[in-house]
Model the fold of this input.
Amino acid sequence: VGQTWYSFGWESQLLETGFLAIFLVPVKSCRPFPANSPTPWVARWGYRWLLFRIMMGAGLIKVRGDQCWRDLTCMDYHYETQPVPNPLSYYLHQSPWSVHRFETGANHVVELMCPVLLMLPFRRLCAAGGLIQLLFQVVLIISGNLSFLNWLTLIPSILCFDDSMLSFLFPKRTLRQQQQAVVTAGKPFGYYFRQLVSLAVAVLIAYLSVPVVQNLLSSRQAMNTSFDPLRIVNTYGAFGSVTKERNEVIVQILHHQNPEDRGAKWIDLEFKCKPGAVTRRPCLISPYHYRLDWLMWFAAFQDYQHNPWLLHLSAKVLSGDRGVEELMADNPALKERPRWLRMQHYRYEYTASLEGSRSWWTRRLIGEYLPAVRLSDLEDVVKRHGWRLPKK
Done:
């Protein structure tokens, strides 16, 4: 159900961030302040280069993509149509149009202009650029459930500050220990060896960055792509296009023998975070990533033929698979194994106010997404794909 790892950009970003972290600490020492072991310059500049590509890639894919980014209207839709909104998204969506224009313009400044500061050799300008990106990530964290993407991007932002700028966060005793470790006589062999390793890593990053830079400069820029099998240096981007309407796939089950019976009652299944019941408050789950909820958001753009994993999900639900049920919210109706399952396509919109109905959403039926099926109807496709179902 979770599909292929690395299908989301932040999963490649996690690998690249982890690779650079290898070189942050010395190999042979576990001391908190090993002597003659300052933070390697390749790690500092590597993280700045990573942050530069994340932000510049996101900015360029926007201005080259959806017209609404150039018209400054994308934020009119974003809070409502983003993959997994949170409660604050609802209120931000109600902001005046002038605020949404400012948000879109500020986004372009932060993603297209401010990243230049990160690569300048001037500590104050670099720190200013890092602070801007750090604050920007905090804004994104509180305005939507974008998984651990923005939390992960905080790491290279912090590397834009030096020790003196962060000293206020530590007690004086810790600072004295740090200073004593720096001021030592002589430089052992290990110091020069680390410099050699840093140079080799820098050459590797520079070599792997060539196709990444070419992609950034291309009018056919690809988003969230890797050009090397190890995914050490990648290209990133987000929301190159913004959907203007929110569609949801609602999974329904039936315990009745005959789905055509007028007395048959179809029951909606609730997921952990994706919109379902209109009165249900949007969730707050960042930095967690509910992959199934995200994949259901993507599936709503297409039909089930383009998302065969939905048939796998259906078979799992109909067979009473407890593992799949744990990926969803608490659904008492699943305590009894359903006979039928179908999926309906709905259009969701925020309500203008919570007063009165206490509904966060309104919805209307677009049409049928997956016709009613039984487990026996899915046996052939289950066998063809080699999927495993729990034994009866």
